[in-house]
Amino acid sequence: MNAATTTTMNALPAEHREQLLPIARQVSFPQGARLFLEGQTAGNFWIVRTGTVTLDMHVPGRRSPVIETLGHGQLVGLSWLFPPYEWQLGAEAMSPVRAYEFDADAVRRLCRADPRLDAAVARWVARVLSHRLHAARTRLLDLFGPYGSAGPR
Description:
CATH superfamily: Jelly Rolls
Distance between the termini: 16 Å
CATH architecture: Sandwich
Pfam families: cNMP_binding (PF00027)
Protein name: Crp/Fnr family transcriptional regulator
Order of helices and strands: HHEEEEEEEEHH
Number of domains: 1
Mean pLDDT: 87
Domain Cyclic nucleotide-binding: 8-110
Strand content: 15-25%
Shape: globular
Number of helices: 4
CATH class: Mainly Beta
Radius of gyration: 16 Å
Largest sheet: 4 strands, antiparallel
InterPro entries: cNMP-bd_dom, cNMP-bd_dom_sf, RmlC-like_jellyroll
């Protein structure tokens, strides 16, 4: 399975997507809008419908490097699932964005009520998290490591 199929909402089984979509609301962000900043409370997450969102990381004394660019069907935000529910990265709309927005408390309640949904969401978010950690490592080595330190790809 490639990164595109493991990091999009389609990686979540259809029956579980159908449980989540009724509680989503459609939102829009103009280009340049910050969806969240590192350290803020993670109360929502989004699935991109159109446009692109960049994930960035605060680096003291430097401009925040872009870790990854997300597009159609991809999950924006992971920290809503894990206490203390604080964003570990920042996110910005790089173009006008339309997305599905989910209230994290409502999704966590649905998951507590349905162990199968809970397991499916946990596996989905874990796959996305694994991909994002690899992307962050590679990007930071590209930016700050000695030449060639990112290793084989």
